Amino acid sequence: MNSLERLFGRFFADWLPGLPANVKEWAAKVLPWVLIVLGILGLLAWLSILGLFSAATLKTVGLSRAYPAFAAAILHILVPVIQLLAIAGGYFMLKRRRLGWMFAFWALLLGILMNLVWFSLAGLVWDFILAYLLFQLKPYYRES
Asked: Domain boundaries in the chain?
């Protein structure tokens, strides 16, 4: 995981231009709340999708072949994990703890995986923005 973190860090913190200090401070205060709110909304959306796209519903309307089993598994398993990581990450980031940053980073990695499987360009753009912000703000989060 450290090598992946270093690779992302080199790109998002070293190669791309940095944010001004006042914007970083503002983002360090706002980003945790964004993660918490979007995580809660994502869990609620997942719960509604779970009922709508259950296997029985898909089979009833003849869509079971349109959604491959691995994609459905990703939707049903990965989405709540990502949302819970985002919520926990936001909570610990409010306390400026590195654990929160790591949770947000894991949520980012799983989000990238999910968006690649689903071919979601909008999701990948969001992941790029989140990765940029996370690596710009990484020094604000300490161990302990």
From this structure: 36-140
